[in-house]
Queue: 2 jobs
Job 1
Amino acid sequence: MKIQVLFGTESGNAEMAAEDLALSVRSDDQEVEVHDLSDFSISELQHDALYVFICSTYGEGDLPNTALPFFADLNIVRPDLAWVRYAIFGLGDTFYSETYSQGATKLADKLNELGAERVGEFGRYDASSWEPVGEKAVEWFSGVLEAAAQMQ
Ligand SMILES: Cc1cc2nc3c(=O)[nH]c(=O)nc-3n(C[C@H](O)[C@H](O)[C@H](O)COP(=O)(O)O)c2cc1C
C-alpha cells in the first residue's frame, strides 16, 4: 500500500511535518510520496493508497492557501470517495481558541461527507506547545499505521 502524504500550508510547518513523516516510514518496501495539495488534483487519487493529510489553519479557522484549490474541487466535483482511506493531522495554535485547528477539521468533514473513511486518531498539533512538529507527526502516524494494519 502506497502512502501519499498531502500537505496544505501557508508558512511551511505542515510541509516540514510531511517531510519528516515520510522520511520516518519510507523504505525499500514502503513507497511514500509527498505532495503540496496545490500540486495535487482529485483526479490523481488512486486506489490502494493511504492518504495522509497534513493541514494547518489560517485566517479565522480557514484552510491554508495551498489547500484551497483541492478543497474547492471537492466542493465543485463532489467525487464519490467511498473507496478512499485517509488519516489527518491538523496544525493550529490554541492561542486561536475559537478556531483551533479548524482548517483540518473542515477538510476532514468534507472528505467524510464524500464517503472517505478516516483511519486512526485525528492528529492535532498546537504551535503554542513549542514541541517539534515533525516529531509529533511521526509519533501520531505510528498509531495510524497500527490502526490501518488492524483494518486489513
Ligand atoms: C495570521 C495567522 C492566523 C492563524 N489562524 C489560526 C486559526 O484560526 N486557528 C488555529 O488553530 N491556528 C491559526 N494559526 C496558527 C497556524 O495554524 C500555525 O502557526 C501552524 O503551525 C502554521 O502551519 P503552516 O506553516 O503549515 O501554515 C494562525 C497563524 C497565523 C500566522
Job 2
Amino acid sequence: MDSKSIYDEIFDKPCSVCGEIIKKDIYEQGDCPYCKWKNNHFADINPKAVLYPNLISLNKAKKLYSEGKPFEPDFNEYIEALHNYGEMQFKYNGTYYAVELVYDKNKKLVISLYNSQTKERIIFSNDEDFKNNAQVEDKLLKDIWNDTTDRDWLQ
Ligand SMILES: [Zn+2]
C-alpha cells in the first residue's frame, strides 16, 4: 500500500508573484527560488495584508517584483508585520534593535524598542507614537528607515 497522503504531495504550480513554475504543497506553500516570495494560500486570498511568513503583502511584492526591487517592508508595513509576529528586529549602524508588542502594568498593549547594545528599552503607547517618535542614535526611525537592514520577525 502507498502510505503517502495528499498532504505530502508536491505540485508544480506558478509562483503567485513572478509566475515561474515552482514546487507547492496542498496549502499552496512553497518558497520561490526565483523571486524569493514565500508562497502561501492566505496571502493568495488576502493580497493586501501582511501575513506570515512574509513582511509585505502579495500586492506589494508583485509591484516591487515588476520594478526589480527586493521584497523589503516600508516602515508602515514593518509595523503591520509587528502586529502579526509580536517580535521583530532591525539593524542600524551595526546595532540590532528588537521591537516588541508587550503589555504594560495596566495590561495595555504597547510597543517596546530595545537597543541590544545599550540594553536601553523605550516604550511607546501605540503605533502612532512609535511611528512619529521612535529614535535610534538621536535620529527619527521613520527618517532613517531606508538605512536599516536585517528587518525580520523573530521566533
Ligand atoms: Zn516567484
